[in-house]
Amino acid sequence: MAKKINRRDFLKIFGGATAGASSLLVACKNNPQQTTADQQEPPKDKMTMRVNPNTGDKVSLLGYGMMRLPVVGGGTERDHPDADIDQEMVNKEVDYAIEHGVNYFDTSPAYCQGRSEKATGIALHRHPRNKYFVATKLSNFSPETRSRAASIEMFENSLKELQVDYIDYLLLHAIGGGNDSEEEFNSRFMDNGILDWLVEQKKKGRIRNLGFSYHGDIAIFDQLMTWMDEGKYHWDFAQIELNYLDWEWADEINNRNTDAKYLYDELQKRNIPAVIMEPLLGGRLANVPDPVVAEMKQRRPENSVASWAFRYAGTPEKVLTVLSGMTYMEHLRENIRSYAPLDPITKEENEFLLKIAEDIYNQKNIPCNECNYCMPCPYGINIPSVFVHYNKMIREGNMPSNKQNPEYRKQRKAFLVGYDRSVPRLRQADHCIGCGQCVSHCPQRIDIPKEMRRIDTMVENLKRDGKVKELEL
After folding, report:
1. pLDDT per residue as tens digits for the range 151-184
2. Is 132 left (phi over 0), alpha (psi -120 to 50) or beta?
3. Of the candidates 65, 139, 377, 467, which lies 20 to 30 Å from 112 by C-alpha distance?
4. Quick check: helix, strand or coil at residue 313?
5. Distance between CA atoms of 123 and 127, rounded to whole angstroms?
């Protein structure tokens, strides 16, 4: 095992090199051609498979998330909402995935502004039906889709768009995610009788596995577990957020989330297979602090930062598949390599990652993944850019938090100058009035006005420190 060195030594030895190295480790959305230095074609016959105990399905450990599909001209639908889906590229990537053992494809009526199911169906229909498992969701979020008739229509349309006679894995989409999650759950699935209708569709063979994806309110999750214990409903699988940061720190980072350890353990007790979402936590675990990148490269020089997170998410034995939204072929190749075959996380590596998670938590990183759902701000604030700069200072070890640190003045200047360069003055945190319009749109449930106040206070204190030093001089 590599000799331990402290954080300051890491920064001295690796600080200048790791920023450049980290950009090479994982393909990024700004430059999809950037890949790991040791990019190699993954094997076609080494994909790790997991067996669903309910059906005997042999499912690829890597699942293809169809929520960020490429568009004509480059980029994704999120970047260019008016652009057409690049069906040719979707077909090419799906073909490559199947050729390399990936057989689980996850979509939703809500993805890509309602266009993901159709694109997924076109790509998959070109292959024999027994070569893939398709997962989609009852995404009846808006009130106009919650009636029995509208929910049934949504399900039937999913079959049509996907060009299939049955859904392999059907999910109640994002339970526990609303402001009043119990009332919302009842409105979406119980008051209209749609959950019982879905159970009937399963008996008819139109749904092979019935489950749910969970976001937020633990009371709803626990209720569904109780129903299974009582024999009221049987859950064939459940989709949860699991990564090495959320394993023990999800609740502390965001009190609307639940630690993945609790969720996974409850599923394991009932022999419910777990489908994993957010293995990279919106990309944050592919952009960990530079000293962490250095130590990961010390331990596994040939592996990317992202591969550590994927290996962690895939190691628990009750994990059926780990979803990743893969826009670019480089992402697909990289993730296939992580699971073809899986090299499970060792006990020592597990302790290493959980210590990293604790350190990341203690740095008070803001869990923004730049999805831009909070935008536009009615007062012109560039919310993601403010958070990106703040997190960048933490990642680079340049957060000016300790005045006794001999580097404090240098860090203070770097923060303030970098802030003005990356975020125009009129779009900075001090213009937030706390209207809260952005909060309900944030998938990570960040208290955006609170964070804006905190960052603005910090910036003002840094400016005041400079004025005091000028007077002293």
Report:
1. 999 999 999 999 999 999 999 999 987 666 889 9
2. beta
3. 377
4. helix
5. 8
